[in-house]
Amino acid sequence: MSDFAALRKNMIDGQLFPNRVTDRRVIEAFAKVPRERFVPDQARPRAYLDEHLHLGGGRYLLAPLVFARMVQEARIRYDDVVLDVGTASGYSAAVLGHLASAVIALESDEGLAVQAEEALTELGADNAAVVQGPLPGGWPAGAPYDIVLVHGAVPEPPENLIAQLGPRGRLLAVEAEPDAPGRVVLVEAMNGAPVKRDLFDASVPPLAAFVRPPAFKF
Which end of the chain is more exposed for a tag (fewer CB within 10 A), N or C? Predict the structure, then answer.
């Protein structure tokens, strides 16, 4: 039987700390959430490896390091409201719930949304609410948001999600075309106009809901 507490500590000591994830609150949040609870039973021994874990249906749990660096760059405050786009099985929402005032965990897949709600309830994450709907539309009912995190590669930061940011809100996403290297970008709402900057390279699976259809060719 795997010692998940030890694996979680090894993840932090061997993956996060050596790769510039040093924010105390972020580290504490990752230390508190049992990542193995959010993956299929057969994948639990691999829950803390530096890899994206397939959850079925083309959806993935992002590798710990990529997600941790995104969370650190988001600079989440205690009173922030976060929109977690593509929460999948809910792991990201559980981590974010330790950092923010409230988390809206948006998921389009009904089965994953049920899994996320069950896991978050089991862990007592009462400031994270799972909602179901199309990912590109975001969740206007809860807007404006201080932070929007998108869990998967998108061709460009989605305008619908940027529009749901509050004053000085921040959106984190991995920008990439299919089969091309990606990079994490930060979009900040500055005086009513979004400002984008690149942060670091990251290759993650695409979110199918955001993939552009192939261009028509004669």
Answer: C
- Asked whether residue 216 is domain-assigned, the answer is no
3-class DSSP assignment, residue 9: helix
Ramachandran angles phi, psi of 107, nearest 5°: -140, 135
Count of other CB atoms within 10 angstroms of residue 153: 23
Please report, for residues 9, 16, 24, 50, the alpha-carbon distance to residue 151 in angstroms, rounded to integers and kept in the order given: 23, 18, 22, 16
Residue 202 belongs to domain with CATH number = 3.40.50.150
The structure's pTM equals: 0.94
Tell me the CA distances in angstroms from 214 to 59, 79, 178, one per residue in order: 21, 41, 11
**Domain membership flag for residue 29:** yes
Beta-carbon-side half-sphere exposure of residue 169 (alpha carbons within 13 Å)? 21
Please tell me whether residue 151 adopts helix, strand or coil conformation: strand
pLDDT in tens, 161-188: 999 999 989 999 999 977 778 999 999 9
Closest-CA residue to 38 (of 67, 74, 73): 67
Distances in Å between the alpha carbon of 29 and those of 186, 189, 207?
21, 26, 25
Give me 157's structure tokens. Answer: 């930061």
Is 217 contained in some domain? no
Dihedral, 83, 152, 201, 21 alpha carbons, nearest 10 = 50
